[in-house]
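Each record in this resource describes a single protein on a pair of labelled lines. The shape at a given residue is found from the number at the same position. The record below illustrates this layout:

***
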Amino acid sequence: MKHKAIIRTLTVFLGTTVLKPSTASSIRWLAALVILSLTIAHPTSAQTNFKRTDHGVVVKIGRAEVEAAAATPSAFRLSVSYNGKPQAHRSIFLADSANQSVPWRMVHEGNLVGVKTSSGELLIDPANAEWTLHDNKGGIIIPLSKIGEETNDDMGKPHVILEAGLDIDKPNAVYGSGNGGSSLELKQGRSRVGNGVAAVPHYWVNSGYAALAVGSDDNAPASWSTSDEQDHLTWNFPGSSADIYLMPAATLYDAATAYAKLSGPPTVPPRWTFGYLQSRWGWQDRAYIEDALKQFIDRKLPVDAFIFDFEWYAKQPDYQLAPEGETNFSDFGWNAALFPDPAAQLASYKAQGVHFVGIRKPRLGNSETLQMIRAKGWNMPQGRGFDARSLDFQNPDARAWYAQHLGPLLNTGIDGWWDDEGELTFTTYYYWNQAQFDALAQFRPGARLWTIDRAFQPGLQRFGAAAWTGDIQSTWAALAKTPTDLLNWSLAGMSYGACDIGGFQGTDTPELLTRWMEAGAFFPVMRSHSTHRVQPRFPWLYGSDAEAAIRKALELRYRLIPMYYSLAHEARQTGAPLMRPLIMEFPGDTNVANLSSQWLIGRGLMVAPMLSSGTNRTVYLPDDTWYLFDSSTKLSGNRSMDITVALDEIAAYVRAGTILPLAPALQHTDQLPGGPLELQIYPGKDASFTLVEDDGLTTAYLKGQVRRTTFTWNDARRRLSWRIEGPYAGKDIFTNMKAKVFDPQPKLVDSPLASNGHLIIPN
């Protein structure tokens, strides 16, 4: 097949006049021979039948109809149908803007027919039942590949098989299908959701493209696989039709942007969610809650939310309830032992900087309510065990009913939802979030939704959702695996990944909890949690050394919130995640191709926390000039080094040519700005950073209510400039700055930030 593919690839080059005129002239004789051979073996261009559609062209290949279409300015759609005319499937994976009007023109050269946009060309060869993808310079991204066959599985159900070719003369690496594997590089993507597992029908291949697969049923998503011996990837679509969206993308950054345009960009979460979130199963009563809050305040341990398990609304978990439920079970109320006066309590806690997040389950426990939803057909079909009590959120009437019952809880002051055990179908979390989004829009219009979910699928990011890695163990192995999972999620479209810091099940040593907290300071969402059977992850319960180290990590987390929050706005604009594997910035460095024990926040801040017991680890510095974080100490790159890390230290490095915006030490995000902004400049190259500020709570930012301060560092002139744009002028903006340049000794220069300006900072 390899030699056959090479000949056909050359044919595509010649037939679509991709080669430059001089090159084409030099091999015109070879072109004539190749085209002549195809003309003899296959129908001529006059015999190629195709039909123009609104978005592209359709051809007939055996029993299948195949469409090459323009989907977005940066994505094509290849549709295969064995049950009628191909057309874009309606899918929650896609933004509303997908498959709208996109400038394109038809290509018809020889046997090849397809579409061309500013991103490249998608071409079909009906004579050979093959297709190919080119970039906008004519280069082949996907060699000629098999259109697809309809097969039956062991149950007799149809599947469409679609191949995407690889150039086996080059090393191929695939990323971005979620955490279904144990490494960053993947050999398969079996799309599914589970307890902390989200594997999605998406990937990026280093040959220069990303793909998103959509089938006839979002709850039966496509999967893919390949091997080192194969010259192609194989997609398997349940059903008789398939859409694969192809995004020419030379880099992972290009892929993130194209994917965000196709599936929708992530919503900017409320600002308080970037603080520390203390979760607990086993909050005992009101006194217990308020003692924990007092401990955080008195010990100066920053915190922004308490997250509550079953006990906030039910006296007992519902795991033992029969399928018919229980007469007195509370689904939408308050447990008086913890919340005898919920509105007043939540208002008091929020005045002290702590928001309320409550767990929800997809099921119900009240017997009368269960009778009602079953009579209306709102329960999950074929539910078993306690899933027999689950609501079918895909039903719009069920969602509307659920939203109405969330209203009183929202009016009481609940700020977010913890959605647990919703892996009933691949799309349950999406429709569940839709119901919560609708409730918030009705009862607190203009507020931002925030949920944390145990899995996700493409499209969930549009609601402002986070996801966490499920019920993990309290072990060093689980800590070491967590960055791999979160980085895989970053590349799969989930910018706000989290875990149960400290692990859900098991007993932490002080060292394990401390190191997990230190790593968590550099996760997109910093949240600890545990089962009620073990010691809660309250820092003061693990000894004075651990508490001091955790306090230091929390203070650093809060100092970095201006950067995290600005990167959240960048994710909204470009799709680039906050937490990034090094391969995003150093794509040519084979040392980082599969490295996940250290990672980037943004483009310039690299962290390498301790992920195993002890104080020694190895850190790899990619080829660049690096500084120790918050230091003038320079380090050369392109090397590994062994380091020693004390219990209260986190290994962190900053690339030359980086600007980091830091807040003063805070106890919660409502204290912003808290003083002047510390603008850290790591010289050696020109640098820039855009600080984004808004009210942190409402959707007004979507209407332009933001303040953007773009800082620019000219290294040769040692000039710092800034430009302020946008109307937002709330009390939480930074009005003063301390610029800090790290060479050869740190220099601090004060300046107001009320208007545009510049500073010359001498050596």
Observations:
- Confidence is low (pLDDT under 50) at residues 1-46.
- The CA atoms of residues 319 and 386 lie 7 Å apart.
